[in-house]
Design brief:
CATH topology of the largest domain: paralog of FGE (formylglycine-generating enzyme)
Shape: globular
Number of helices: 9
Order of helices and strands: HHHHHEEEEHHEEEHHEEEEEEE
Number of strands: 14
Distance between the termini: 47 Å
CATH architecture of the largest domain: Alpha-Beta Complex
CATH superfamily of the largest domain: paralog of FGE (formylglycine-generating enzyme)
Helix content: 25-40%
Strand content: 5-15%
Length: 434
């Protein structure tokens, strides 16, 4: 029990250190500004993570008196769309920092005193793990806000590692059943549960995410001007939004440049493409004579071990990620080039399924068979349906605490400000190995 409490305290501190770093990187004017109508002011995210921590850990788990009940409505994400939040009477920078610090002090006291057993919400520290993941998810959102912010660069990090292995074009995933989702991961969220058997026919999947160089070929071949490659909805959005290239790309002579966290550099051809929406990913796949993988296909490629027939926690095995396995946790500020993480390869030979870029898959966001909302419907269930597409695998901005082989993300298919890319899949041809 003490070891678990120590781990929770460490995870809470890691998340808060990252939140503070993202908030402290800018001055107060930038902190309260809205840098895009798609994003909240950074100061809203800062106080929101504290408010969620107060609601779940201080009041519910700890049974303590509220710190600031008067601000609950302000930081309810369902009451106020992001575009409306700058007009709210939000806590200012100093008040927000003081509030989250006060809440955190009370949370440490709750953690010291509350047994982590005997109630589903606290068994194995679940409520604390949920809050850690919630804060890390908002940290990635704050990082995405930094990406759309204009002005001088304020974030810095070393570059990701170079390529360390050669990566082939595609991998055949054998047909047959596998276990999807989890019933055993202590901090898995409700939409990852329960574990269930899925039958997946044999298919081929790209051994690596689609790169900038490959995507540039699609652009050069007139991919954005040819409705043959787009669905009806995708073509309508491409035209109405005026899409001509990934978000943050600009013409640079005969090539392309990319602006990333205030710095503009030539597009690196061997990095995974990022900041494309689902419709763009789907159009590229059609142009390439392929398709996007379904969510079960993606997870089978990431977790299935044909030698044992079991599903791993991660492509490389059951151990938590290290810097050798994947590009996670904002250690770097870009995807790594293809072949940079041979230690993270799946048993079938698929690379970089975890980290670098979220990967769009061609599946609507729905619950698994036997899904039960826990601990509240608003985490997952209210988003189920055809409006949202699933993303898998995490990005360079995703913390390991909020990324597993079973972790599911979702967003509108038109969204591009997130750190999203994709890889392609295809059905096998007659006579190919199955």
């Amino acid at each position: 029990m003490e070891a678990l409490k120590t781990r929770i305290a460490d995870q809470l501190e890691r998340a808060r250190s990252r939140t503070a770093g993202l908030a402290d990187a800018v001055d107060d004017d930038d902190l309260v500004a809205q840098h895009s109508p798609l994003m909240s002011p950074l100061v809203w995210d800062l106080a929101h993570v504290g408010n969620q921590e107060e609601l779940w850990l201080v009041r519910d788990v700890g049974g303590r008196q509220p710190v600031r009940r008067d601000i609950d409505e302000l930081y309810d994400a369902f009451r106020h769309p992001r575009g409306d939040r700058p007009q709210l009477p939000l806590l200012g920078p100093a008040e927000a920092r003081s509030y989250v610090a006060t809440v955190r002090d009370k949370v440490h006291d709750v953690l010291d005193r509350v047994p982590l057993e005997g109630r589903r919400l606290v068994d194995d520290g679940f409520a604390f793990g949920m809050i850690v993941q919630h804060e890390q998810q908002h940290d990635e959102t704050m990082l995405a806000t930094h990406q759309v912010r204009t002005g001088e660069p304020v974030l810095d990090a070393p570059p990701p590692p170079p390529a360390r292995s050669l990566v082939g074009d595609e991998v055949v995933v054998p047909g047959g059943p596998f276990t999807m989702g989890t019933s055993a991961e202590p901090w898995a969220l409700d939409n990852e549960r329960p574990a269930h058997r899925v039958e997946a026919p044999a298919f081929a999947i790209d051994a690596a995410p689609v790169t900038n160089g490959q995507y540039a070929m699609f652009i050069a071949d007139g991919g954005y001007d040819d409705p043959r490659w787009w669905t009806v909805a995708g073509w309508e959005h491409r035209r109405s939004a005026g899409l001509v290239a990934p978000m943050h790309w600009t013409r640079d002579g005969d090539g392309w440049a990319l602006t990333r966290f205030g710095r503009t550099t030539p597009v690196a051809s061997d990095e995974p493409v990022v900041h494309v929406c689902f419709h763009e990913a789907q159009a590229y796949a059609a142009w390439a004579g392929k398709r996007l993988p379904s969510e079960p296909e993606w997870e089978k490629a990431a977790r299935f071990d044909p030698a044992t027939g079991r599903s791993r926690r991660y492509p490389w095995g059951d151990l938590d990620p290290t810097p050798e396995h994947a590009n996670l946790g904002q250690r770097h500020l870009s995807p790594a080039v293809v072949g940079a993480y041979p230690a993270g390869v799946s048993p079938l030979g698929v690379h970089q399924l975890i980290g670098d870029v979220w990967e769009w898959v061609d599946s609507d966001f729905t619950g698994y068979p036997g899904f039960t909302a826990f601990p509240y419907r608003e985490y997952s269930e209210v988003f189920f349906g055809p409006d949202y597409k699933v993303l898998r695998g995490g990005s360079f901005g995703t913390d390991p605490a909020a990324c597993r082989g079973t972790f599911r993300n979702w967003d509108y298919p038109i969204r591009r400000q997130i750190f999203a890319g994709f890889r392609c899949a295809r059905d096998l041809l007659p006579g190919e190995v199955r």
